[in-house]
Amino acid sequence: MRTMPKRLQKGDTVGIISPSSPPNLENLKKALPFLEEMGLNIKMGKSVEAKNGYLAGTDEERLADLHAMFEDPEVKGIICAGGGYGAARYADQIDYGMIKENPKVFWGYSDVTFLHNAIGMYAELVTFHGPMLASDVGKPEFHERSGRMFGQLFQPFELHYDESISELETLSGGMADGELVGGNLSLIRGGIGTKFELDTKGKILLIEDTGEEPYQVDEMLNQLKQARKFEEVAGIVIGDFKNAEPKKPEQSWTLDQVLDDYFKDMGIPVVKGFKIGHCEPHFSVPLGVKARLDANAKTLTILPGVE
């Protein structure tokens, strides 16, 4: 069992970091009142505004921010400003023992998936797959439901997803219980063959992505299949795949055809259509907690992520 971080309370301080690419600073500024309205104080990481090509500062600077926020007893939670690329570059340098001794809320998605999986594996900490400040919260289209999902950090409660939230489609029936793991498909694929390769045995696997054409999704799913990630997985939650339309549709499968090819009548529960990922609203979930996927009823139930 992973350690659950302590719930946030009004008056707590949260640290803001840019673990990957430079965030849109205007959007970040617009997002900060959202945190303040929840009663949170804000501490900015030193490299949040740094730019080093497509990276938010050097690997050493971003790593130092991550370490500093986990080590700082004043900081009760860490929320990522944005994703992009680069978190995996320093994953092998993270002090997971220190994180394990200082468990706290860690929130983000997309490129942050690599950190979720690494921290879950080596610090055994429950983390949160949810919208980020500059990437999502600071944008005009940020949905009220997405904002309400931050409430799970302040009060432990089960999450329930059914078709009242979005239309769902069962690709393969059945029901399964297991630890919810995963996130961005590209980053899950990126861990294969490394010491951060995701263990899917007996787990409920979440996948989502953005900007990948059907053949690219096919390529990534094929790699997971060849790496035997689907052989003992308990169930699969298919989140949002934004901008997945083929550039040459007359020469391509659709995304639905790709997903059907891998998951139709798979023998384990598989459901697609969850608004989890690069979408609005964005249904935020804790990773590393027990979940139940009922493909027949088309429901997903997830236990609380904080204590």
Automatic annotation (TrEMBL):
GO terms for molecular function: carboxypeptidase activity; serine-type peptidase activity. Keywords: Carboxypeptidase, Hydrolase, Protease, Serine protease. Gene3D superfamilies: Class I glutamine amidotransferase-like, LD-carboxypeptidase A C-terminal domain-like. Belongs to the peptidase S66 family. The active site is at 110 (nucleophile), 208 (charge relay system), 278 (charge relay system). SUPFAM superfamilies: Class I glutamine amidotransferase-like (SSF52317), LD-carboxypeptidase A C-terminal domain-like (SSF141986). Residues 178-293 form the LD-carboxypeptidase C-terminal domain. GO terms for biological process: proteolysis. Residues 14-130 form the LD-carboxypeptidase N-terminal domain. This is LD-carboxypeptidase.
